[in-house]
Amino acid sequence: MASGNSPSLTVHIDGGARGNPGPAGVGVVVSADGVAVLERGYYLGETTNNVAEYTGLIRGIALAKTLSPASVTFISDSQLMVNQVHGRWKIKADHLRELCVEARSGLATLDHWELTHVRRELNRRADELANRAMDARADVEG
């Protein structure tokens, strides 16, 4: 069990692709007590929107783990990814199934986690970082 000094984190994640497939990026915002402590945008090259969404979760898990959190709430505007990770929706594409397995494996290493779907407008900063990475065609920091 995590110690009492370990933070509880909120991680906003977003992925997108221009063209689908097309130039893609991911945005991740890690917050503790409502204050952003890490903001990253990652350029993924050419891929699909759904791959970018899963990659956002995987990158968000990795960033959160660097802070040894007591608990993490992941927030995404991808209804598809959230419902597939929770096992509510079937995964038809093999490459998405592999990413889902990777995401679930990462989540299993956390003491306590939640994954929640929100409307797009409630995930603005992560979206901005994903777009900045796509524009720069490079990883960016907030």
List the secondary-structure elements in sequence, H or E. EEEHEHHEHE
Walk across the major sheet and give the strand order. Answer: 5-4-1-2-3-6
In terms of structural class, how would the helical and strand content be classed? alpha/beta
Low-pLDDT runs of 5+ residues are none
| Anisotropy-based shape | globular
Total strands: the figure is 6
Mean pLDDT: 95
Helix content: 25-40%
Largest sheet: 6 strands, mixed
| Radius of gyration based on Cα positions | 14 Å
Summed up, the helix count is 4
| Distance from first to last alpha carbon | 31 Å
What is the assembly state of the chains in this entry?
single chain
How does the SSE layout of this entry go?
Elements: E1 8-17, E2 22-32, E3 35-47, H1 49-65, E4 71-76, H2 79-85, H3 94-108, E5 113-117, H4 124-136, E6 140-141
Parallel strand pairs: 1-4, 4-5
Antiparallel strand pairs: 1-2, 2-3, 3-6
Helix pairs in contact: 1-3
